Amino acid sequence: MLIDTAPGAEKTRFQFQFRSPVALAIVISTIFLVFHNFRFWRETSAALWNGTLSDTLFMASLFAVLLFLHTTFLLLIPGRRLLQATATVLFMVAAMASYSADAYGVFIDKEMIRNLFETDRREAGALFNARFALYVAVLGVLPSLLVWRVRLQKIGFKRQVMQRLAFFVGGLAASAAMLFAFSANYSSFAREHKNLRYLLSPGAAVQGAIQYARGTMPNAQDNTFVDTRGATTRFMKTAHNKPLLMFLVVGETARGLNFQLGGYDRPTNPELSKVDGLYYFNNVSSCGTSTAISVPCMFSHLGQEHFTVPVALHTTNLLDALAKAGIGVEWRDNNSGSKGVSARARTISYDGHNDAALCNSESCYDEIMLQGLEQSLRAIHDDTVFTFHQIGSHGPAYSKRYPARFERFTPVCNTNELKECSEEQIRNAYDNSIVYTDYNLSRQIAILKSLSDRFDTVLIYVSDHGESLGEKGLYLHGAPYMFAPVEQKKVPFILWMSDGYRRRFSLDSACMRALVDKPFSHDNLYHTVLGGMGVKNAMYQGSMDIFAACRHDAVLASNTSASQ
Question: What's the whole-number average pLDDT of the chain?
């Protein structure tokens, strides 16, 4: 590399001249590995380096192998300007990925890319801060500007091909030799520490983007819609009874470990703890670790094992099944949308509302979803399910999720730069958001109780996923499911029934209490809600319906005859 000074009396312009595209690609790759991967090298060293000479040589070989892979990728891009443009995009992506990894321990995979594309302005804005801007400026903008000051020495096409070929053959041979020499180390890296690859920047982001793009590319089936509901029957009808009314509340980022009802050592559920006839299920797992996966998954009959977003988008879901059974459905959203779940249902969104009492500069509080609810309830005369999609405890600005009067635990973290706060401050702000969720749920139960003369009522609450609050250096959520910690996968599940509802379905209270410690998951929700509204269809499985095991034999017998 040469640094040239262009002639001129007024100013001096620096240019970086390289003798070949190979040299430029090597320099760009070195910048990525050295400056954009602090977390990757820190985690890798902690896992695989014990201070021995052999381990040191392995780490050096790992750097060399990754350098070869990154450089090879860049050399596949023809032309200087296209290479510069690609490097610019990658520097910006790597800067943001590096910030996410360093600040929150976030892993980048296909689903994290999906979250990026499906987020709204509120969620995106919550992550912006001075440190983020510094990362983008220093690790994104600065190297991008420098790479555009590069000039390549003019060489013929044949010589360029030979240079690339020589690098590829030599690098491949050297990499193979290092893989052989440190085979045990690389085996451990590949098998026991797979999660580390999701910290590699920009490689993980590029791979995730490619996988996401492949999964969303149009195909011949994109215009097809599969109705899986089949024959739909009602085994508990409205005739000669009050209408059934269910509040189905979808929490956001609420982890079961911080619910007093589940044994947490802080009073985060002061209101719900006083409610009679409430059941808290202690052992419930989420379908995913992000809203973009968990919400469509929990409303799908597919279950976690068979769920994919493209299939779910083109398949009927729980709301469709309820509607086909003649049940009214309404989706109230105070989050980033239903992810396609409410596409065919009446939907009310509170994004953009400007209520001084119930909104702040970033979002509205979940109480806002109760506005106009009483008016809607007065107009109902048939079985109905209201779904409330909360913003709940969405981070990193947990203190923005509740009004000031709910600040029970202090001091709190009032910034989205979580590493500037102590563990206690983060925990306090997060727990205050759970206290506010407790308040909202208790209000919804009170509304249902007040309607007991008109409806038989039930409330189900379940969060979409949990949250990391600094455990093992991880924050927020969205980790690849197989590597995700329990904090991101264990979610609260709450059930409340009115006396009239319990009598109507002949539900055994002792039986229900015996179920609260058994393992359940989001996979149970589709079947439980259908059964809870007295509906059966082709996808309904009684073994997955939490209510089913506790219905009285007489009701079960009538259910069978009604469905035949």
Answer: 89
CA-based nearest residue to 301, from 545, 485, 20: 545
Q: What residues contact 126, with CB distance under 8 A and at least 6 apart?
A: 362, 394, 395, 396, 397, 400, 416
d(CA 474, CA 312): 30
Distance CA 26, CA 92 (A): 18
Handedness of CA 145, 146, 152, 157 (dihedral sign): negative
Q: How confident is the model at residue 563 (pLDDT cuts 50, 70, 90)?
A: very low
Tokens 């360093």 — which residue? Answer: 102
Answer whether 417's CB lies under 8 Å from 131's CB: yes
Structure tokens at 147: 């790479």
H-helix or E-strand containing 486? helix 486-489
Tell me which range, 12-21, 116-125, 501-510, is most confidently predicted by mean pLDDT: 501-510
- Which one-letter DSSP state was computed for residue 234? E
pLDDT above 70 coverage of the chain, percent:
91
Task: Count other Cβ atoms within 10 Å, centred on residue 95.
Answer: 26
Span of 73-82, 349-358, 405-414 with lowest mean pLDDT = 349-358
- SS3 letters across 435-464: HHHHHHHHHHHHHHHHCCCCCEEEEEEEEC
| pLDDT tens readout for residues 403-424 | 999 999 999 999 988 988 999 9
Beta-strand (E) ranges in 109-192? 150-152
